[in-house]
């Protein structure tokens, strides 16, 4: 039995916002794969939970009229991975969330929780950073939009206010059209794992597929929050994809932009080795996918399947 | 054989697959109270006071007891048979709750409440005042001058026991080295030394440790527990409470694995006590997974300071080892496991001059070490096989050839008399090498460059089947004939997932002549009813309890035939039971020949294209009349594709003395069907003339033992920049005698190989500087997932062992032994880096590869 004193099932986002504003100790629960684990450990025991799990408008993936992809936060990882829009336009995001835990956790855990719990190790985080995803928050004072790159304030902390509910993540066309990417999760085993390090590298090549026009590098666990490596991204622009020097460039470049810490789970030195090595390998795979003509075009609203 | 040796579906398969099988907590009444143990938040010190006033106010709390309330009785917890000699008894070094805190999370109080939420809320409100000492988590800290003795009433310092084993009393490594220099010249010798380490790990059985207890109307305390050892648990509860053992009843339903953790009495005594102090109300004490990892038992962490000496042409001359094990806070299994490590390290290889191995069991303020699958031999194998491969690497020897020439030889007799009767270790190595393409791969992987490299490696082991003569081996069995001619079989060697119920049923079927579908084994042990057995541990059940089953089945068979003789008016000697019928007995083969003279030891070729080897058929006759071995038992070895047989009396040290003379029946086969078992049973129950309820109950003290052995070969890929090891191919080859159920045997090996991979690469319980466990949960304690392991390959070399009741030997524990050293040695082959420590985590590998300049 879990030590939960009060439990509310919100009917709508507005309802959830109201419940949160009425209960100062309340925590949002959706899939429960983080909240219940913490509760079991005594954290938040005897408290109040507000469930957003049954709110219909928080599920699914959609395309807005301008081609912006809209991912609703209560969508579970499995549904994301297998969603046709995700597979067509941002498959590396689907691959990233397919590395979370095991099948049961992926059927239950949601992308909203993955981002909003503020963990640097979240498997969607590095990729969402490179997508410049925008977090849509709805609170007592209305709706606001925060780029995910400005969302985190520290380990386990975000700009989300207590009464705010994440309503969607928006990914704009300029952030996915023409890009390929690759997320590499590094763990101590192949499943049931929290990332020791997560690295997503994405590239957009020129029309002749010979030069890097844009590169994006996102990390989880390389710093107290998920981060980007803007300087190394810039340094890669204009480089030829056949130039083996780009791998050395990315492998050493990122080391100046990260800030991993030592813990009993992994030393700083070890994480730096992974940061460098995974960047090289993710870049190589991202380029391979571009050369394989896997970069998507613009999504249209009529492509919505659900 | 009719039933033994066939792959019957597990008798418990249906219940376990459908979820109908009942485990301890499934049987709990709805009003069962829930208990929570309050744990110390320091690793070493003394509880000065406990304030429970706030906790008592929590609604739903029924009772709170503290370390100041419990009986002043210290008790032992090991799942060993009790020794009637005081000097060999397990050490009583803990109470139900302890004021002297010896590990982080030590049991200092307990809360009983109507549910776990109330119990946890109350536990969080208990205030404890401590006198705190420095934590001493490692062996080095515990042995440092001035370290606090953890059990000053038992030992003056933290060395629990120190033993020294030598191949001969006067063996000394340094003298052996001097002799070697004289004999071979220093330039012709290879010497390797190193400090090798193995980690503390958790069993990770799927069902957590749990029990629930109540006091019945007659004042008997009854504990339903997830245990491997119901009868020993009964005794220990009595000892811990100061109660008569007869006033304690333990019931063991199906359990979700134990791997040795439940071969210890864990919280059953406290659970019984909590029910008693709650007026006999049912109380459940279920541990969390976190508690199972850090507060029950673990595999001993071990440090071996080793040296080895060989000639440059590959002859192993001498080895020595000082081996320290981390016992943790309490004695549990005492020095037995450390003793096992040192003995096995010494015995697995043959040293021309000799070997010394000293073992130190050391108390530390950390999780208690106890039994875990293979009882010290995984540690011994890692130490011995790592040293062996390091010698090979230094000398440029092929590790397979070196082991072939220097491993434990056929006919090995241990210093305690245990003899290796049926030897096929070298043939196992040959099979494993063939499967992995050893010679080709050793060449192919010789001169690799680049970040990803491959290697092949091997590990070997030898494992004693039971614990005789180190300890008592005793077992009882009961069989009851039903009115339809079927039988019940009741034992107390417990089913813990290993398939014991199934193979015991096969044995009963084999020997009685009643078919498997009419053999009903009673899976639940209730100590008020079930005959005595010390339980499921070692790899003893099929060997030791198997003898009791066989003896009981023979007795039941004799009684059935006696009744058949009455019904048919024919002598029992002319009758036999075959497939649920009484038949005429037809003699086929010749009488078993007399023991051949010593000089007639013969040599015969092994059969081609078959793994099953019939050892002269008649020499090992499974129809002999009790559970013991025949007089004509042989010692045999499978070497170079041929089996050599030697008379048992050729063995050194008068080994034959432990064999008992038995009458051996001639080969027989069924003739005409005379009477069905059903007709016989109905008559026996209801005959107005001679009503007889046919049952049999026997005790068998097993004074036989033998060795099993085997090896593991792996082909791996090392991704050096990421420190990742991928096992591409793996095989275990086992010398475990006749297989009782080949499918179950294979599954047993698969599970062991998984454990071996985890032991090699990822598993280890870590502590912080305060002595608090860091990773006592299944997220951070990394057992391999299905995604981490390759397809498993298994081969068996089946050779009847004369000591086994059906030619069988140990298989339960051995599969876990040779995998970790094989992987370690493959990494050495792939990269030239000699890892001295498991688990070989990615971080440790990356550091080692960097140090070696490989990345």
Domain module count of chain B? 4
Which secondary-structure class do the elements of chain B indicate?
Answer: alpha+beta
The CATH superfamily of the largest domain in chain B turns out to be Aldehyde oxidase/xanthine dehydrogenase, molybdopterin binding domain
CATH architecture of the largest domain in chain B: 2-Layer Sandwich
CATH architecture of the largest domain in chain A: 2-Layer Sandwich
Rough shape of chain A? Answer: globular
**Based on DSSP secondary structure assignment, what is the total number of beta strands of chain A?**
14
Number of domains of chain A: 3
What is the CATH level 1 assignment of the largest domain in chain A? Alpha Beta
Largest sheet of chain A: 5 strands, antiparallel
Q: What value does the average pLDDT of chain B take?
A: 92
**Subunit arrangement of the protein:** heterodimer
Q: Gyration radius of chain B, to the nearest Å? A: 28 Å
Low-confidence stretches of chain A: none
Distance, first to last CA of chain A: 36 Å
- CATH class assignment of the largest domain in chain B: Alpha Beta
Please give the count of helices of chain A.
12
Biggest sheet of chain A: strands side by side, in what order? 4-5-10-6-7
**Averaged pLDDT of chain A:** 97
Percentage of residues in DSSP E strands of chain A: 15-25%
The percent range for strand residues of chain B is 25-35%
